[in-house]
Write a structure and sequence with these properties.
By secondary structure, the chain is mainly α. It contains 22 helices and two strands. A hairpin with a 2-residue loop joins strand 1 and strand 2. Helix 6 crosses helix 7, helix 6 runs parallel beside helix 13 and helix 9 packs across helix 10. The longest helix has 43 residues.
Amino acid sequence: MRLEDITVALRPRQPWEAVDLGCAMVRRDFGRILVLWVCTVVPLWVLVGVLLRSSPAWIPLAVWWLKPLYDRVPLFFLSRAAFGERPTFLETWRAWPRLWLTNCLPALLWQRLSFIRSFALPAQMLEGLRGAAVKRRIKTLAMDGGSSGVSMTLAFSNIELVAWIGLILGTHGMLPESAQPDWEGLFESFDFESTIPDAFLCWGAVCHMVIVTLIEPFYVGAGFGLYLNCRTRIEGWDVELAFRRMAARLTSATAAVLIAVLMLGGAPSNVQAADQNDPAVVAREVLANPEFEIHKLKIPKWVKDEDKDKKADRAKAQGLDFFAVLFRLMFWALVVGVVTWLMIYLVKNRHLFSSRGVSKAPVRVPKVLMGMNITRESLPEDVVGAARAAWAAGDFKEALSLLYRGSLSWLVIRRRVPITDSDTEEDCLVKVLQAGEKTEADYFRQLTGAWVQVAYAVMPVSEDEMQALCDRWPFVEKGGAA
């Protein structure tokens, strides 16, 4: 293809003017592009629909992922139509397998999520480059139009998404009742399988195919317009084309002038005059004229003192080394501090990471805790009844002592809480809380507070609190003695 045959006006344009130029090229031949699209893309969609008929929700994703294949036939047509050569249906049909198979895997794998897909596709298809060469070419073009390609991709993606949702919402009312989704149930339970029927998902996939058919060719054309604009700006296509056309116009006129000069006899006389003069002498005479005199002007120029510069660079490097060492020391000091703090925190709070279940290891059951006998034989059969009797007799400490000893007896013997004979009331409470039984732990916390108040502060608890402790007694079997 020759540059002189191009059918569009080449000039440096703004990015969105170039996008509009590409869309105008698609509008000019949209009918032919649509026929080629239907013949090449629709059969692939039928195959995708058959393979994913049991999972129609995945059809739009598959259609979207295969877009790089669809773009090649429209670009093949546009690139030739731009130079005045519209390929026929048979020519496009013969080139179709080659267009789809060339660079197929990279386009569908690691290049699929490129934001300059339609802008880079002409460089991959039309320039015949492969491997690192095409990467360098795309990088060079992207320096001028890469950001515009990204913006164009985002714009067309938003247009496609809005148009797809609008088409679904505008046409789902025409579907039969059995294909209508249960919107209320969907928003309440988010159960897509039971609230959205497969017929509606298939209809949504068909709507997506329609929107892609209408929008994707314009996306390809917009990327091709950006590609032409970048080459025009970088390589000066418009200037080259202007010179070529000027040369074509001047060639015939120049030939006619030379023929006329020769016919008038001017050429032989000039040749004879040139023979009579020595070229070297003529050149020296011409250069002796004042117009060719060479004037010399001395301008002082400051030259850096390399020794001083080296010393300054060395001092700067030393300063940077000092700061690098300082920052490295600060970093490692911070790391050591964090690790030390973490170790101290884990040691102090190791009980938070221990199992809250009942330990299966054998525990030596103590008989005396804090000077109180907690064996079965030392407790009455009905601990709560004996506590109520002691309270009624005015022996408040004995009443709470019975409840406290009974609780400890149950927790140590039945619940297997690992309480040792050296533990205090606070230690016993912590271990009961770690055992994990919430009802017993809450009761024992309240009972411990009442017992400490009576035993150490010599302050009796209220009648209501004692009554609550007796009523909420959770150790029911044998009064808690066993």
